[in-house]
Amino acid sequence: MVEGVLEIDRVSKRYGEVVALQNMSFDVRGGELFGFVGSNGAGKTTTMRIALGVLAADSGEVRWNGKPIDIDTRRRIGYMPEERGLYPKMKVLDQLVYLAELHGMSTNDAHRSAENWISRLGLRDRRTDEVQKLSLGNQQRVQLAAALVHEPDVLVLDEPFSGLDPVAVDVMSHVLREKASAGVPVVFSSHQLDLVERLCDRVGIVRSGSLVACGTVDELRAGGTSRLVVEVPEAVNGWTEGLDGVRVIGSEGRRTVLELDHGVDDQVVLHAALATGPVHEFSRQRPSLTELFRNVVTEERTA
């Protein structure tokens, strides 16, 4: 597998007066898991469809290894749509073989690959069943197998974890990590932000058709406020008053959660805490991706 880079470069798309995408730009590197997150209607699916050539951009360009994506390149992309894209009355094995052949595989190679992914994704007992007779979770597994069966160079997955039970989530997570380890750029959207935080090397947050934040979770955390958990058993209420850029956002007994503006020195807070008496806890609380995402959405609604 040759590593490459998928680039979304200043892509814009309008539907009449509605701006679906505006100068959307990011890249997904070989061997990287990239999480693409945003509210419903933010532009995630539109971006993915343009990357696949299902939709045409009004402006901008999608490139693979520095070259505009063409029909041959698209055959090397594994795409998993959010909505079901399978033939409901076709048997699982027959469908996967057919799709692999459409992507240029020989019949023997298609059968070999289909059987491999059927086994890997826990579908061996369902290989001769019609897709419409499977549970929604197993249909999702078949959908992933359809994206993988032709051994793609790029994976673009729209809500791949939707409807999966915890065991299936673990199986899919392992497969995505394995493909990334083999040098495949993997981009997927998801509303399950705990999974995105756990799996992804980088995360892009999209809002109203534009990418508003991009980086590792640690990098995204560094750009905002920080939090401290302080336990001061002898402190009186209001002990943080007078500390500029420090807000109390939660408390339980004498354990207080503080939010600090960017640039505020936590040692100033420690000094104030020690002035009240003994300090039993003084630790930094790392905001989750869910909290970071919520802050971005809140900024949009209050702007």
TrEMBL record:
UniProt feature coiled coil, ranges: none
Molecular-function annotations in GO: ATP binding; ATP hydrolysis activity
UniProt keywords, alphabetically: ATP-binding, Nucleotide-binding, Transport
Domain ABC transporter: from-to ranges: 6-233
Domain of life assignment: Bacteria
One Pfam short name: DrrA1-3_C
Nucleotide-binding listed as a keyword: yes
UniProt family annotation: Belongs to the ABC transporter superfamily.
Official protein name in the record: ABC transporter ATP-binding protein
Organism: Lentzea tibetensis
